[in-house]
Amino acid sequence: MVETRDKRVSYYLLLLPALVIYLSVIIFPIGLSGVLSFTRWRNFVLTGFVGFDNYLVILRDPEFHRALWNNVQIMLTSVFGQIPLGVLLAYLLFRKLVRGTRFFEMVIFLPITISAVVVALLWNRIFSPVGLYTNMVRVLTGNPDYVVRIFENQDWAMVPILVVLLWMHTSLYMVMFLANMQRIPSSTIEAAKLDGAGEFTILTRVVVPSLANVLFISSIFAISGSFKSFDLVFAMTGGGPVNYTSVMSIYLYRHTFTFNNFGYGSAVSVIMVVISVGLITLTRWIYGRVQKKYD
Amino acid sequence: MKRLVRPGSFPVVFLACFLLLAPSLLQAGGQKEDDGRVVLTTYLQKDPANPQFEGHNAVMEAFAEAHPHITFRHEYATGEAFHQKFQAMAASGRLPDLFTTYVGKRTAYITETGRVLDLRPYLEQEFLDGFTPAAWEPQGPEGEIYTVPPSMAVCHVMYANTAIMDELGLTFPETYQELLDQVETIRRAGYYPISLGNRDQWPMNSWLLSVLVDRLGGQEWFHDAMSGQAAFTDRPFVRSLEIIQEMVAKNVFSPGVNQMSNPEANQEFYQGRSVYLIDAGWRTSAMTNILDIPQQEAIYLGTFPRVDGSVRHGSSAAVPSEGFGLNVNLPQDPRKLEAALEFIRFYKGPQGAAIRLQHGEVPSYTLDYDDFDLPLLQRAYAEFQVNTPMGYVIDAKMDGEGMGILNPAIQAMMFGDLSPLQVARSYEEWVAANDSSRVGN
User: Fold this and answer.
1) Among chain B residues, CA nearest to A237
2) CB–CB of A151 and B113 under 8 A?
3) Is the domain defined by B155-318+391-439 classed in CATH 3.40.190.10?
4) Which of A17, A132, A164, B321 has its CA at 20 to 30 Å from residue B220's CA atom?
């Protein structure tokens, strides 16, 4: 009896440091954000509680709708662009379907080693109105007014950012998938080949099912990462022109740190957390269904 | 049970704690005054290692030499980091003795919350008379003066490349219509009429819209619009937006004006690819360093041409630059207060102004420029300030959050996604409901 109690005390004592850190670093800030989200601030001074007003204003704000839609576009690009492309590239390298796999591994992995800000500056240098690409097209076409108009179109302005995100982050998934593919016993692949399976069948029936866990983890990374997107978008466009490329984190940043409205910013952050947790829960549910099917 | 700490180790633990805390203790203790010296703590938005602040460093050295009994404990930060820490300082009530303070809304979190000393009772009229009158626009609702602006930030100059103008047989346009008429000639010759980099959204507002609104409405109308007696849907504001829209439609700006950063627009002008550049007045400092003498000689400093229906002609827009504010509690220590005022008089007055002028700044304290050997464009900028009436810069008078509505809307209008009236309505709606000049703090 005494031994059991001592054990329990020991467990709690051992758990305590981690629990304190978790509560103070994760739970307390989230809770405080929740409380702050019901307040209004002006010039760094709390001016009063406003109930759900901040949430109502945010949910009615067309700029927030656009930012949310842009985040959804990033998420879709991540989940249905980066991950499938990562699987495909990893499979090409895993099965040595191209020559010079080492070279390709290095080249594909390169973008992720470069800072997002540097990548943004690089792309801006190329496509700006005084950039290399723009000037080349002007010279070749004889049109001195040529600029890349897609940046100014409210429906398409996100496309260049999505392309850069695809280029940058696919490599990370590729490396994760390649590492996991290398754990698949070669005998399994050989057996599939002896049964007459082609590369597509091996990929879809053997390799992808064995990557189910890592695909699930990658999806969670992709979804949560998409809703946190800030650095590349901020450095590439700052959310502009107009607010055509604004994302929720930029929207939050502007209201919190430029306009000093901490209550409003906190409400945005709470909405972001709710959306992220909701989507991750949905992913878990889908994963559970898929796993059951395979079982 | 095993002891956690051996008996003899307490002195070691004490020594370790002391060493850890020593820097903080020394710093806290160092703020005391002794042997007749006065120590002022500061928090300044400056970067002394940056060559741009050579003038500031030179004034500080001269002041230290002339006033050895006054010393400073400086803390510096720049950009957004400066404001974030400053806001935290203000919220905790731990402001230093002297700190960077803006005339406009940028440091409203200290000026509008009673944390800065009103300098009016402490500055002599003779000292105030030495400055350009535009420096003394009211900084608070009762005409408070929280800071002495060291210089004027002129936010509108229409630079012209006279070499290209001579080549094309053009003269600086007297009227807006003349400017529009020049576009075809300029474009046919392979040049762009006006460079302006509006990628960051605020330049079109600060550098062009402000001056157009001043021309069409004047300062009186602007005061009325601020207080709600007039509205931003009135003709002066809407017509100003229409002019910008018309300039886009008639290809007056170089292509991609909303994709182009400010440095890129400058480069376009420096490389002789455009005839005009609309930019801030302080750009002359960069031009002096970058351009060779013949290029500098070819640059003319003018203002946007006359617009039909104007109530003012030839004006620019300017805002007094950020200066030094004093902690509202400083009068409780008369020695510190006198030292801080002495520093402000030296820095902003004739001695400091002369030093800063020699390092490329155009001070708001009026000096006889003939006494100084100034670079060509710095002299031109100084004369421009003396001879040009100045209007308000919109984003210095109105709340920053409203600029988050207005500036993107101007871009949307330039893309054809909004009309000038829609832009004006959306801004007026926001101002009426939120701006501190209408609804108070």
Assistant:
1) B199
2) no
3) yes
4) B321
